[in-house]
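Fold it.
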Amino acid sequence: MQPNYKPYSERTPDVQYRDVLRKILDEGVRVPSQQGVDALMYIGPGSMHFKLENGFPMLTERNLAPKENDRLKVTIWRQAIAEIIGFINGARTLKQLEEFGCYWWEPWGTEAKCKKRGLETGDLGPGSYGAAFHDFPTSEGENYNQFGTIIQQIKEEPQLRTHFITPWVPQYTARVQGRTQKVVVCPCHGWVHLRVVGNKLTLHMMQRSGDVPVGVPANMIQYSALLLMIAQATGLEPYEYVHTISDAHIYVDQIDAVKTMLEREPRAFPTVKLNTDKTDLFAFRHTDFELTDYNPHPGIKNIPVAI
């Protein structure tokens, strides 16, 4: 089932993301980071609520759908969707993610970063998103598919409050003497609570740590897309996406780009529709999504990414 979108002309420009940026700039505390670049940090700036009738939550303050070229094999918004599809299908290596259309993990899958954690080059580790979502290790020695089970549970017991997913495999994320961390990047997002009321599905994604100028816009896209996919797989209406960040931060070398975005007028969210021929959650690909009504401001080149 597709979202019950209002006509584009009737949609109200959404400023919740802009409010988060302003709160961090105005009230954030400057802190050092593991990446070596200081950041302005604000804990818990508030939840963003996006009812899909008002459009698909994709930023218009900068262009997230630039034309693909030799350098950009898959455009930004599609890579975000490709990444979450790869993760729910168990992708944990650079090669596997690239097969789904996500190419931006290369800086984190280097020989140096992987060797430090006892991993093969390009392996993000058994504590990474794909491993946690699709092959979560249990005490019985089972590789537990969280999303597969949740789809079944929603179909059988939609009223439950326990439709919950975690990206966190704690024995692989600890960084203490005597233990080797088995993940190149500890999961920053992906605590997912699904709630069914009537025939409407809400997806609430809780985020441990959010690079708000760069990472969060991609997270907004991919988890809204996940809402569409889960709704179609369960025969529900994709109603609302809710996004909560704990450690929300802006790196100091991103501040100029943030100020540029905040100077631009808000514009209405676009329309994203999903291929209605598929109902298997694990069969969707980024090419099953269609973007229309997207009227963004120009892109902002080279916003720094902390690695």
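The two ends are 38 Å apart (CA to CA).
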